[in-house]
């Protein structure tokens, strides 16, 4: 067995549940989350990556999950704009109607755009800085800040006001807000 196969097996054995949970936070659908993890594993390990540790492999897989989700959303949006040219009169069924969203946060995440959702998940779930999110998603830092601000505002609309000031999360500083900032 080659080195990368051992790394992949260890990653799946030890971190599969965490990866599926992460994918669920990104997409909001349990079945789609499992598919995202499988696709991300294939994308990550489809070419040899010598001396890849399990920690680095997990980071690759998480990045692939986010990228695959955003790519799928873009493809779906493009198809919705042109599908009437191929199937006149066809109605588009919302795939999220059959999903039971028992968690308030998951339900509120459904109302966000894919970029806002990705930015919020990376910021608050992965605890990434604005700069890291910018490089992960390949967008400008100002754009990340806008998505975070819009996303937090939308989440507050569905969940109620947050207890602490979110402006501290929208900066490049990773330091926790001081008592003065919270009051």
List keywords for this structure.
single chain; 183 residues; mainly alpha; Arc Repressor Mutant, subunit A; 2 domains; disordered C terminus
Describe the protein's architecture and organization.
The chain contains 8 helices and no strands. It is mostly helical and 183 residues long. Helix 1 runs antiparallel to helix 2. It has 2 domains: 87 residues, no CATH class; 71 residues, Winged helix-like DNA-binding domain superfamily/Winged helix DNA-binding domain (Arc Repressor Mutant, subunit A). The protein is globular, with a radius of gyration of 18 Å.
How much strand content do the residues show? under 5%
Radius of gyration (CA) equals: 18 Å
Order of helices and strands: HHHHHHHH
Shape: globular
Uncertain regions spanning at least 5 consecutive residues: 98-102, 166-183
By secondary-structure content and strand pairing, the structural class works out as mainly alpha
Oligomer: single chain
Mean pLDDT, to the nearest integer, reads: 78
In total, how many beta strands?
0
Q: How far apart, in Å, are the first and last alpha carbons?
A: 58 Å
Q: Please report the number of helical segments.
A: 8
**Proportion of residues in helical segments:** 55-70%
Main sheet?
A: none
How many structurally independent domains? 2
């Amino acid at each position: 067995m080659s080195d990368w196969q051992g790394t992949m097996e260890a990653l799946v054995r030890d971190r599969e549940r965490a990866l599926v949970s992460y994918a669920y936070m990104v997409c909001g659908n349990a079945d789609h989350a499992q598919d995202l993890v499988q696709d991300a594993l294939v994308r990550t390990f489809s070419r040899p990556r010598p001396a890849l540790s399990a920690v680095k492999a997990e980071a690759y897989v998480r990045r692939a999950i986010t990228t695959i989700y955003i790519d799928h959303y873009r493809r779906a949006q493009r198809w919705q704009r042109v599908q009437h040219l191929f199937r006149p009169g066809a109605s588009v069924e919302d795939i999220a109607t059959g999903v039971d969203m028992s968690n308030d946060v998951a339900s509120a995440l459904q109302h966000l755009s894919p970029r806002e959702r990705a930015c919020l998940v990376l910021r608050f779930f992965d605890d990434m800085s604005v700069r890291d999110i910018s490089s992960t998603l390949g967008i400008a830092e100002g754009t990340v800040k806008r998505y975070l601000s819009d996303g937090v505002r939308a989440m507050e609309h569905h969940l109620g006001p947050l207890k602490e000031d979110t402006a501290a999360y929208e900066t490049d500083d990773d330091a926790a807000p001081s008592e003065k900032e919270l009051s």
